[in-house]
Amino acid sequence: MSNFKDHSKELIEQNLKTLGGTPYVYHCHHFNLFHDQTVEDALGQAEAFTVRSRAAQKMATQLIGNLIQSSGASNPVERLQLAKALFAWMGQGGLDLLVDGSGGKVRGDALHYSFAWREKYGSKVKRSAPIDAFAAGFAAAATELAFDLPSGSLAASESACYACREPFCDLDVATASGDAPALDAVSVDEDVIMKHVVQPGTGLEESRIAQITQGLNEFLLGVDGDQRGLVQGFGIFITRHLSGYYDQTAYDTIHMIEKTAPQATAAVEELFGESGHVCVFNTFGNLLLSPEWEGMVGPVKGEVEEIVTSCAAIARALGFGHWTVEELKPGERLVMRSTSNYEFPFYLENYGRSDKSRCYFFANASRAFMQLAHRVDWPSKPELTQDLYQELFKGDVGWQTEETLCRCKGDDCCEVVVTKK
Amino acid sequence: MNSDFLKQAVEDVPSIKAVFITAMPDCLLFGSWLRADSSWSEDQVATYFGDLFRANREGLKALGSWSSEMQVTIESPDNLVILHELSSDFVCACVFERSAALGMVRLHTQRLLERIRGSLPTFEAEERPRGVRVLEFLNRYAPDPHAVLLRVSLRTKLPMELISSPEQLSPSQVSQVEETACGILGLPSLNI
């Protein structure tokens, strides 16, 4: 099986995507690295690797398991081949699974996290801890499923990592130790999503947003990886990634900080929110400046309404949910709503109702919309460099964002209000 | 330093584009002169050249060949830069057009440095709190400067209010912050 497109499903009205029944989204390497770096900052590199790899293992078990079932792959060789092809289709890189029923070795070549880390940070800082926790968890899940082993019975570690200047990545899959975290998160599937989302609403420029979303959906589904298993375009490495991985790693980390070091809660929440800025600047921004966008929508004029509604369309196409623009006063205020996104269904299903808003990505991505709409000279087609990012997002961004309504608190929808400071 | 003085000091120096005087050990801009068409950030340049000079000094000391008379010459595609230690408290960077002959540049630099040296104040340098210097260093070199203070807060579990006022950090908190800075930069120690 190599044509995974046929197993990708759009929950059209909710603008969410599933692959083999497992929710997925598109995120770039800037976001992925920043997200995982925050988990590392909070937990320390060793514990973070365990938390991330076990979250990856849990979510990958659902994905690979469903695809094995639907494809009829019946023996270990077929199942491992399927896992390898799937990993590459997701833009996660190349995996060579040399495993049997007791585990084994996995060679990673051009793995998304370590490859992108070295591209982005390698010339600036030296890394000594391995980074490919997602690949490790994925490999452990693939091995368990290939040999019909109980879920969570294996665990994987990384003994050599490209980010640490090794030529390849080496992963070791072995029996999980007694203290390995259980894979007890509840998987989110279409039924769970539909249980928590509400009837989609409409906002400003609905027909424009819907039309662009449809075009982008078709374009994104056709994007294929290269021989390395990486998807490179618009100056970024993009992945089709399991949203449950982001959700579990972020929420478990935030809860741990809330419990053990409440004085650092503001920092961890702000950093997970910051990844929303990182994503919008790099992925949304580069998409808006791409020839593909120009061909599909036309050149970007740089009007505030145009940028914000375009961003809402991009969010929907990337599988972030049904985001609507409720109110927009250029220079003053933006109100965004979502009746579905990839954050709250996971939260409600796994942790129950919260006493505060929990859609960190939605809240901060909305703020980044306003910053991009007001501060970037789009007609001049600027290069979206990290220097420009610092100029726009370092220090006081100039916009305040607040998630005033959240499904996690029991509200009817999620609502973010962005106001000029 | 009075900018009129530097303006006068460079008057007869051909091909010169800028002069930056950095106060050590904090690598802060003490004085500068730039040609009118320049858009360089004086503070930034002075700070990075201060760091560069300090690293160079430590490197040469490790080789056992350091002398206060040494200078650093950088030949970049657009500029010719000469860094020279004026005293233990000051480093001077002179930036020339790339087309200028190196021999002439050295000669003029020597004269210019003598003029500047004579007008520098003598004082007992007072070091700012180490916590302040650690965070400034981190801000200059961390890979994601927009988020670095939040990262320090999260890694140390010290509240942001405290990280934002590093002069108030206790000695043990400074050590924690310094260890975190090393971790973020992937360095065994900070050269500050």
β content of chain A, as a range?
15-25%
Counting structural domains of chain B, the number is 2
Give the strand content of chain B. Answer: 15-25%
Instruction: Please report the distance between the alpha carbons of the first and last residues of chain B.
Output: 24 Å
Q: Work out the helix count of chain B.
A: 7
User: What is the H-and-E element order of chain B?
Assistant: HEEHEEEHHHHH
Commentary on this structure:
The complex is a heterodimer of chains A (421) and B (192). In chain A, helix 1 (29-43) crosses helix 2, helix 1 runs parallel beside helix 8 (243-260) and helix 2 runs antiparallel to helix 8 (243-260). Chain A folds into two domains: 4-175, Trafficking protein particle complex subunit 3 (Muramoyl-pentapeptide Carboxypeptidase, domain 2), CATH 3.30.1380.20; 190-233 and 264-420, 2-Layer Sandwich (Muramoyl-pentapeptide Carboxypeptidase, domain 2). Chain A has helices at 29-43, 45-71, 76-89, 112-121, 133-146, 190-196, 206-221, 243-260, 265-288, 291-296, 304-317, 344-351, 360-375, 386-393; strands at residues 8-11, 16-19, 22-28, 94-100, 103-109, 154-160, 169-175, 231-233, 236-242, 323-329, 333-338, 399-405, 414-420. Chain A is an alpha+beta fold. Chain A is built from 14 helices and 13 strands. In chain A, strand 1 (8-11) and strand 2 form a beta hairpin. Chain B has 192 residues and is of the alpha+beta class. Chain B folds into two domains: 3-118, 2-Layer Sandwich (Beta-Lactamase), CATH 3.30.450; 130-185. Chain B has helices at residues 3-9, 42-63, 102-118, 130-141, 148-156, 160-163, 171-185, and strands at 16-23, 28-34, 71-75, 79-87, 90-97. Chain B has a five-stranded antiparallel sheet, sandwiched between helices. In chain B, a hairpin with a 2-residue loop joins strand 4 and strand 5 (90-97). In chain B, helix 4 packs parallel to helix 7. The model of chain B has no long low-confidence stretch (mean pLDDT 90). Chain A binds chain B through residues 34, 37-38, 41-42, 120-121, 124-128, 257, 261, 263-264, 266-268, 270-271, 274, 389-390, 393-395, and chain B through 141, 143-147, 150-151, 153-155, 157-160, 184-187.
